[in-house]
Structures are given as C-alpha cells and as structure tokens.
Amino acid sequence: MPAYVVIGGQWGDEGKGKVVDYLAQKTDVIARFAGGNNAGHTVVTDGQEFKFHLIPAGILWNNAACMIGNGVVVDPDALMQEISGLQEHSVDMSRLSVSDKAHVIMPYHIIIDQSEESARAGGAIGTTGRGIGPAYMDKIGRSGIRMGDLLDAESLRDRLLFILGQKNNILTKLYGLDPFDIDSLYEQCLDWGVKLKPYIKPVEDMIQDALSSNKNVLLEGAQGSMLDIDHGTYPYVTSSSPTVGGACTGLGVSPMHIKEVTGVYKAYTTRVGAGPFPTELNDSTGELIREKAWEYGTTTGRARRCGWFDGVIARHTVRTNGMTSAVLTRLDVLDGFPSVKICVAYRLNGENIDKIPSNVSTLERCEPVYEEFPGWQEPTAGVTNVNELPKEALDYVKRIEDIMGCKISMISTGPARHETIVVDPLF
Fold first, then answer.
1. 41 an active-site residue?
2. Mean pLDDT of 123-150
C-alpha cells in the first residue's frame, strides 16, 4: 500500500492532531517524522481532551501501530511522562515504537537553547526552549546521542565524555553556568535506556515491512511548512523539515511510496513567536479570533498571533509540498463575523506580487491585498454535511480552494472527532 502524508500548511497549530486522529481509524501504521516535544497536537474524543507532543495522535485507536521516526528528536523524560499519562487513561502503549536512530535531547541541549534565546534579547526567534535546535545541531554536527546509544552502556560513556568536553566549555565559558558531571549524566542515560528499552526499535524497517505488506501507513508531520528550515520564513523557523521531504528522510520512506499529501490549514492564519506575518490583525478582530478559538499554544501556552487567511502562503505550501488535497479547520470560529477576508497577493513597492520574498525583511514590508466576502450568520459549528453549510461559508471555502489550487477534501467544524465534513474521502 502507498503512504499518506499529513502536514501543516501554515505556521503550525493548524489542527493536524484532529486530522490524524480522524484518519487513524482506517490506518494500520502512523509514524511521526519530524520535530520534538515542541509540537502540540490536541485531540478531543468523547468529551475528553488529549494533548500530544511526541506520540502520534492516532494512538487512541487500537487498530494503529504508532511510531516515532528517526527524524524526531526525543526528550526521554517528556516521552515517559506522555506514556505514563496515556497509560492512566488505559491506552495500550505496547503499540508504540521509537526509532533507535532518533536523536536524544540531552539536558545540556535544553540549557543551551534557553541561554541562546536569552542572549538574542530583542532578536529572539521565539523557540520553545526545549532543546530542539541544539539537538538538531548536534545531529548535523555528528556529535549527537541516539536512542539506540542508550542501550549500549559500554560505548555510551566514552561518547558522553567527549561530547561533555565541548558542551561544558560552552556552558562555563560562554554563559557562566555550571558544568555537567559525567557520572550523573551517564547514570541518567542508562536509566532512560532501561525504562525505554521496550519501545526502542528499528522503526524504518518496520515501516518498510508495513508498506510491503499492503498496510495503510500515515506519515504525521509536526509544526508547519512555513517553519521549514529551508522553505520557511528563515531564521524564524524550526530546526527540522516539516515539509513532505522531511517525511521521506525522517522515516526512511521513498518518495515513490507516497500517494497522497494532505495539507492542513486553518480558515484563518495564526503564528507563534517572532517573524513576519503579513495578514496579522493587531486589533479587536484579531483579539476576537484569538478568544473565540482560544488560540494559545498547546506546548507553551503563549498567545498566538491571529490574522486573515493568507492565500499567498497557502499557494506556496501547496506547490512546495505537491499537495493533492487539503483540510480546512476551524471554519466555525468565523461564524457571526459581518465579513471575512482572504489575502490574494502582497503589495510591495507599489506593485502586487503573488510569491513570497525569501528575505524576511522584505516580507515584513509586504502589505496584504484582500478580497472581502460577506460573513455568515448561521452557525457552522458541528455541521457534518457540506450541503448544510451556509451559502456564504461555502463560497468562502470554494474561493480558498481556487486560490490554493488544491481541492479541500475535509472541513473541521469543531474540536470533537465527529465535527468533521468529509467532502472527498482520503482512503
């Protein structure tokens, strides 16, 4: 069977958790391919809210094997806490596997991350401070610790001894902090290995076996395409590749296996942290969206910046990822607005442009060019049939579809699993 990819089409927080959970009921394997516990996926089922940071959102379905791929960076303490929380709700965690090639977020990564962000002061990027960036830096610098290393007590100490020589220099000489003790850190790593050994497995081989056995495999992204290290609003990006290319490298899946790429978009746009945001609304309308949708980070609790739907960004991420379909979430948040807007172009130096400038300072000077549409006064919340949407809401959805150049296959009309309109089933 082919693989199906679900990725964010904006700056993250698009509602991927709900989408993955919904699709998981017909999926055999769900595999997370990028990011770390800086991600926050929320699923509401039977009136109960679950928040996921590392574990794939499909874990709540008993039919699905859930895997954390090599492209993810793993904080063992955060993972164990998440496992424990799900076990308290009687979720079967024997279905969880963590790639032995996934890199470990070490305690020094967290301290360095927070220290670097503080040193940036007014130029802060807006990281979550969870060590994500430093862990990926060590991965690329070939000085990381992988999950499989936690099971190799003999070589682990030697690796740690070499790495700590570098990290302690940074901590003490650059930031004036206390060094890490090799013995304490070594024992901590061994303890992680003992506790997580049942989950550490050759995930890449397991996914290949699943594909060879004609099983449905769903590849779950984190963050959003506009936070991609290469294709996002650099440097205000994450340190991984939340685009479709990251699904291949983060799980060892050939592009030839991918049949569908589904992008998830809010019916408006949000962003957390610093960086350009052309359609941001610093007014009562933006505040109304934030409060109606409770736009506060799942991971950090930070208030999200809110604005109208950005069609330029949507078109860019559709093209970059080769999206075959899209999901529009939180349509119900716009219920009752007298009018709604879609950004169809940017105004730069007196001219309209339909592409995103690669330089963020240039993008910050761009002004949105809007099309305005009448709002809808009938509620869309809880609607499950596309024919029951108010005409104005349906016109809005169709215009977004036209601007993106991609069909909208699902529409979310509320946080619960059943509050979903399926226009065109994915499988």
1. yes
2. 89
